[in-house]
Amino acid sequence: MRSPLPFILNNKGFVEDIKHLISPNFERRLPNEAINLIVIHAISMPPDQFGSKDIEKLFMNKLNFDEHPFYSTIKNLKVSAHFLIKRTGELIQFVSCLNKAWHAGQSSWNRRANCNDFSIGIELEGSDKKEFTEIQYENLNALLEVLCQHYPIQDVVGHSDIAPARKTDPGPFFKWNKIRTSL
Known about the structure:
Blueprint: E1 19-20, E2 26-28, E3 37-43, H1 54-59, E4 83-85, E5 91-93, E6 99-101, E7 108-109, E8 112-113, E9 119-125, H2 134-150, E10 155-158, H3 159-162
Parallel strand pairs: 1-5, 3-9, 3-10, 4-9
Antiparallel strand pairs: 2-6, 4-5, 7-8
């Protein structure tokens, strides 16, 4: 992965010069839905294992559910995120920022339900058991910078903040002090 450089977000809601895999798991945003929240997640497939293409396969509905016992427990799950930052720093976009990715599930922030309606979801390849990599933080910061320049972002939170009864990610090893925002 290249060193983090300023990313460019085009008028179709895609970051240029990164890998794009278009997930079928999204909905169109309504014209009056302002994007003002960024949700940071952690994901690993299989759990606590890194380096496979299974996260991408999950977001693309192409995961082979027979490859790992855990996968049978998520067989009917249809999820996506706007972005994935792999442990190598590779940045992949699955859903245009102009659309709603299916990343938040049942959620609320500041007494407002359905965070998918007004947020951008960023997945980091990681877990509750291991530190994230420096290049992940570097590319996360570069991505946050361009998103904050284009949208009226008010908060950057973890999945655990918007769904505390269900989720723990990005987890205890995520270092909030390593991210900077233009908020």
